[in-house]
Protein: Legumain prodomain domain-containing protein
Amino acid sequence: MMDRYTAGAFILVALAIVAVVDGRNDFIKLPSEARGGATEGNGGADDDSVGTKWAVLLAGSSGYWNYRHQADVCHAYQILKKGGLKDENIIVFMYDDIANNEENPRPGVIINSPHGEDVYKGVPKDYVGNEVTAHNFFAVLLGNKTALTGGSGKVVDSGPDDRIFIYYTDHGGPGVLGMPTSPYIYADDLIDVLKKKHASGTYKSLVFYLEACEAGSIFEGLLPEGLNIYATTASNAEESSWGTYCPGEYPSPPPEYETCLGDLYSVAWMEDCDVHNLRTETLRQQYQLVKERTANENGYYGSHVMQYGDLKLSVENLFMYVGTNPANDNYTFLDANSLRPSSKAVNQRDADLVHFWDKFRKAPEGSARKIEAQKQLTEAMAHRTHIDNSIKMVGKLLFGFEKGPRVLKAVQPAGQPLVNDWNCLKSLVRTFETHCGSLSQYGMKHMRSIANICNAGMKIEQMAEASAQACTSFPSYSWSSLHRGFSA
Ligand SMILES: *[C@@H]1O[C@H](CO)[C@@H](O)[C@H](O)[C@H]1NC(C)=O
Ligand SMILES: *[C@@H]1O[C@H](CO)[C@@H](O)[C@H](O)[C@H]1NC(C)=O
Structure:
């Protein structure tokens, strides 16, 4: 039985899904890029005969509806492994609740594209379950074994000639990256860790690939030049990033999969790495290719891939960071510059609804599974409505009916960080969540609003009063902070 609200929600979701289904299927061959081609891509001069390659891979989510993030990380591991990195130098963070999830149609197997092979096999389980924390991530980057809580004990024990590759994929929000176990990663803490790592003199250069919504906000105005760090992000500071290979799209996952298999930016860089001799492809060439594929011709979906930090590092070959698969030795970037079609995509923040909807749609009429899927969808929708309305109301209570929405939506000028006082942001997030429940992966989008409340000079007491007024009852469903803990 569906009440009218639920039926309305289903129709909205269905419309949103239909709206992104219409696809192309051919590979697009890009003309080779003559510009820069002559000077870039010769691996000879700057090889890695000294120094070790290190990698840290992190999937920041849990739950079957977030299948794609762990699939991305497993795929990245396979690239590094085939590229010649050693397991002792690859550190993997993933919740590890996908391969053997009861929803997984192929037990023990994870795929990252519709016809992809198993990417789960052999992936080291360094930090799993509740060990996937911001605290352990920072300890690993800093090479500080004594700071670890649980896990394999592997850390980036690097020296001054070494190169480090970091890849993170998950939900995010302005200034924040999700983690399966709270609290989240805040941009200022991450940047501090990178500065400390640099100050310790334990790397030559570092490349950071980051997939998350509003990923640009992690580095914008925050990552200085001179740390020998080159970062690219799936999205700019103000937009969503996108899941791909989702049910109902083209190309879609095999029919038994009711979840997205990958993320648009992530599969763009990885599918490029899969087929090329990475001694002949530079970071910059990959950035441009990935930017084009992820932008999707600036259509309805897609995002702006950005680069930050020491852009001069981008003339280096990918090989210096991720190695290269000897089987691709004859496939240079310029000879085989193939760009997959802009695949259809689903907003990161709607991918959970796609999963619940697809599960609902396929479950037999009257089955327990159908009822469960309906409950999941209804709760997810109720949570969204509750969080959206609460934040709006807090804004109106603090700044007035007219001015409230404007203050919350304001965007800092380009090159400025999201918030002036990060401690204010963290304490106001906690204050809000104390009264209104967890923001959760969807609610992270409101970090900008809370940052703006800080930028306007509001204090904890004012936030507490407004939140208490806006949220008269505390939600008890599964998205509540009763179950999820606090984000800050
Ligand atoms: C490592 O972490 C421990 C515990 O957090 C801390 O006391 C120590 O100062 C850290 N060591 C370094 C070298 O940063
Ligand atoms: C690359 O081409 C050369 C010359 O044709 C051939 O000998 C070699 O086996 C090829 N390598 C790979 C990995 O296919």
